[in-house]
């Protein structure tokens, strides 16, 4: 995304902020050693080019590892949350260990930013964040090129899913996969069980409906999307914002099967293209598999592009200043 945007905007990637910082900083903190000069040195080395009028745009998932590095930098500090606060708290405390159990993402991270954006309606309302459309790592010009290419479907149609192992996802897959397979769809369903992968000699549960595997790169994910006819999305329980998976399906002209009821609020929603899993019977799903597909226009897709994200944030800061 950064490589694409920098051809049209004044955008620079700081991709090594945590290198030689996160581990040492955490170690000094745990031992109650002074960290002021260590932090100042890293700021001088890594952030010396920042000017007061610049915008430092930080990701919600990574920021916990280097908040001490950026929290008092003299520029506009903006945080973009592409996960819910519940997910971030769980990940930072129990997986990454970037937050202690007695710490909280809201109290430790968010006070240090001028603007905080989230894709989740409920989090925006609860924490007074600014709503921002979920956005793809593609500029509008890249979207146009993608739409100019045609992706030939194979003789056998395919439905693709990849995501972290959650019990509700297993339940959805076990119910949906047999229906798809009986209607001549291959199912490429992949669940990532991080706890099992991180334990030596762990017994990993297998199923004929899904595979427990490893995380793949975003490029590999996109290739999987291209090769599929339907994308399956199973969101976190309680999530009210649209995910990247849904926007990918719209961009690449794929049908979407999702558990996200709030997707009806979006301007790209079309019942012939998007099926919401609720309490429907099997025949409802079968009928959807045979609906006529209608692509969503690029005018609508622009709102979910990297350009739109950057323009929104810049305009908001102009008004803020």
What's the SSE blueprint?
Elements: H1 2-5, H2 22-30, H3 36-46, E1 55-59, H4 67-70, E2 76-81, H5 85-95, H6 105-108, E3 115-118, H7 121-127, E4 130-131, H8 140-148, E5 157-164, H9 167-182, E6 185-192, H10 194-197, E7 211-212, H11 218-226, E8 230-233, H12 244-251, E9 255-258, E10 274-276, H13 282-289, H14 298-301, H15 306-320
Parallel strand pairs: 1-2, 2-3, 3-4, 5-6, 5-8, 6-7, 8-9, 9-10
Provide structural commentary:
This protein is of the alpha/beta class. The protein has two domains: 2-135 and 305-320, no CATH class; 140-303, Glycogen Phosphorylase B (Rossmann fold), CATH 3.40.50. Helices cover 38% and strands 14% of the residues. It has 15 helices and ten strands. It has helices spanning 2-5, 22-30, 36-46, 67-70, 85-95, 105-108, 121-127, 140-148, 167-182, 194-197, 218-226, 244-251, 282-289, 298-301, 306-320; strands at residues 55-59, 76-81, 115-118, 130-131, 157-164, 185-192, 211-212, 230-233, 255-258, 274-276. The strands form two sheets. A six-stranded parallel beta sheet has the order 7-6-5-8-9-10, sandwiched between helices. α12 (244-251) links the parallel β8 and β9 (255-258). The longest helix is centred in the middle third of the chain and has 16 residues, at 167-182. The two termini are 27 Å apart. The model has no long low-confidence stretch (mean pLDDT 91).
């Amino acid at each position: 995304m950064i490589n694409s945007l920098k051809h049209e905007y004044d955008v620079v990637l700081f991709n090594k902020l945590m290198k030689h910082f996160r581990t040492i900083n955490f170690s000094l903190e745990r031992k109650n050693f002074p960290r002021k000069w260590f932090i100042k040195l890293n700021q001088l080395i890594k952030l010396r080019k920042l000017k007061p009028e610049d915008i430092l745009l930080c990701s919600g998932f990574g920021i916990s590892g280097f908040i001490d590095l950026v929290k008092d930098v003299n520029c506009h500090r903006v945080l973009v949350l592409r996960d819910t606060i519940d997910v971030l708290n769980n990940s930072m405390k129990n997986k990454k260990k970037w937050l202690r159990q007695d710490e909280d993402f809201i109290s430790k991270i968010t006070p240090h930013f001028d603007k905080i954006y989230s894709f989740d309606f409920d989090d925006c309302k609860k924490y007074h964040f600014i709503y921002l459309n979920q956005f793809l790592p593609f500029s509008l010009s890249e979207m146009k090129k993608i739409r100019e290419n045609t992706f030939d479907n194979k003789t056998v149609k395919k439905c693709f899913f990849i995501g972290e192992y959650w019990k509700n996802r297993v339940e959805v897959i076990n119910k949906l996969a047999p229906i798809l397979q009986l209607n001549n769809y291959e199912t490429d369903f992949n669940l990532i069980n991080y706890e099992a992968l991180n334990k030596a000699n762990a017994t990993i549960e297998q199923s004929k409906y899904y595979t427990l595997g490893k995380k793949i790169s975003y490029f590999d994910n996109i290739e999987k999307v291209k090769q599929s006819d339907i994308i399956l999305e199973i969101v976190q329980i309680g999530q009210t914002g649209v995910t990247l998976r849904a926007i990918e399906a719209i961009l690449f002209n794929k049908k979407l099967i999702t558990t996200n009821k709030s997707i009806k609020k979006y301007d790209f929603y079309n019942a012939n293209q998007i099926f919401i899993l609720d309490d429907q019977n099997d025949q409802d799903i079968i009928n959807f598999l045979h609906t006529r597909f209608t692509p969503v226009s690029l005018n609508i897709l622009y709102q979910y592009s990297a350009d739109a994200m950057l323009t929104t944030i810049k305009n908001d800061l102009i008004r803020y200043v």
